């Protein structure tokens, strides 16, 4: 009888214990809402059988272990929210047609998935507090529909990629508390960005309104370094020339005086 069930909403209850693996038998399910309960244990791998599933919300529970790779292979899945759990480990290497993904407040580790670049319709990425490391991957430049990106409180390094300044629909960007450095790009989302979205990256430089140091002109910086090296040498050389000329003129003057007495 439940095989034809399309929507299942059990959210905001006090349901305890593991999520039943038998939910994977509800093959017509398009929406599964289990958020704000007290479910524990792991996410059933049987969810990979829900081929019609478009929206799944497991947030604000006590779920642990890892995210089953089969969950990312659901072709119709649009929204995945597993935020505020105790999910650990690395993310799967393969994802498919998601548009919104929220993995915040878990214990995920590793580098940001370069496979996210395959999700050209993705509009929302929320990955704060993940201990992600490495640079912001170049494949993310393909996400032209992205409207919100939160990578705060990670361990990201390198520069802020210029392609983020070309995202027309990007209105929310948070890169605070990482190890990013270099010049803050200009344009689109960066035109209205505030210090709160960039704070905690000591190596950033850019516009004065953002409260970061100005970026030094590389050519001027190089010239200053060269001048610091050459200036002492020039001073010593000039001093040597002056002394030599002084001694030479002193000698000539002495010789002229001696000739007069003769």
Automatic annotation (TrEMBL):
<keyword id="KW-0472">Membrane</keyword>
<keyword id="KW-0433">Leucine-rich repeat</keyword>
<dbReference type="Pfam" id="PF00560">
    <property type="entry name" value="LRR_1"/>
</dbReference>
<dbReference type="GO" id="GO:0016020">
    <property type="term" value="C:membrane"/>
</dbReference>
<keyword id="KW-0677">Repeat</keyword>
<keyword id="KW-1133">Transmembrane helix</keyword>
<dbReference type="InterPro" id="IPR032675">
    <property type="entry name" value="LRR_dom_sf"/>
</dbReference>
<dbReference type="InterPro" id="IPR051809">
    <property type="entry name" value="Plant_receptor-like_S/T_kinase"/>
</dbReference>
<dbReference type="InterPro" id="IPR003591">
    <property type="entry name" value="Leu-rich_rpt_typical-subtyp"/>
</dbReference>
<feature type="transmembrane region" description="Helical">
    <location>
        <begin position="229"/>
        <end position="249"/>
    </location>
</feature>
<keyword id="KW-0325">Glycoprotein</keyword>
<keyword id="KW-0732">Signal</keyword>
<protein>
    <recommendedName>
        <fullName>LRR receptor-like serine/threonine-protein kinase</fullName>
    </recommendedName>
</protein>
<dbReference type="GO" id="GO:0009742">
    <property type="term" value="P:brassinosteroid mediated signaling pathway"/>
</dbReference>
<dbReference type="InterPro" id="IPR001611">
    <property type="entry name" value="Leu-rich_rpt"/>
</dbReference>
<comment type="similarity">
    <text>Belongs to the RLP family.</text>
</comment>
<keyword id="KW-1070">Brassinosteroid signaling pathway</keyword>
<keyword id="KW-0812">Transmembrane</keyword>
């Amino acid at each position: 009888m439940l095989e034809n069930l399309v929507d299942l909403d059990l959210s905001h209850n006090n349901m305890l214990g593991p999520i039943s693996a038998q939910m994977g038998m509800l093959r017509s399910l398009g929406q599964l809402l289990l958020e704000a309960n007290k479910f524990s244990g792991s996410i059933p791998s049987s969810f990979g059988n829900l081929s019609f599933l478009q929206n799944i919300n497991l947030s604000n529970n006590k779920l642990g272990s890892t995210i089953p790779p089969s969950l990312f292979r659901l072709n119709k899945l649009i929204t995945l929210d597993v935020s505020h759990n105790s999910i650990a480990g690395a993310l799967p290497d393969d994802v498919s047609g998601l548009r919104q993904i929220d993995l915040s407040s878990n214990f995920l580790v590793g580098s940001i998935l370069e496979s996210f670049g395959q999700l050209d319709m993705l509009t929302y990425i929320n990955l704060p507090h993940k201990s992600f490391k490495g640079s912001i991957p170049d494949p993310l430049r393909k996400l032209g529909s992205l409207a919100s990106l939160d990578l705060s409180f990670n361990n990201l390094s390198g520069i802020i990629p210029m392609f983020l300044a070309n995202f027309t629909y990007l209105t929310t960007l948070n890169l605070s508390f990482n190890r990013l450095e270099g010049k803050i790009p200009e344009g689109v989302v960066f035109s209205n960005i505030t210090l709160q979205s960039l704070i905690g990256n000591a190596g950033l430089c850019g516009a004065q309104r953002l409260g970061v140091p100005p970026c030094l002109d590389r050519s001027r910086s190089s010239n200053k370094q060269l001048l610091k090296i050459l200036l002492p040498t020039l001073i010593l050389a000039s001093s040597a020339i002056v002394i030599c000329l002084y001694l030479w003129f002193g000698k000539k003057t002495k010789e002229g005086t001696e000739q007069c007495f003769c």
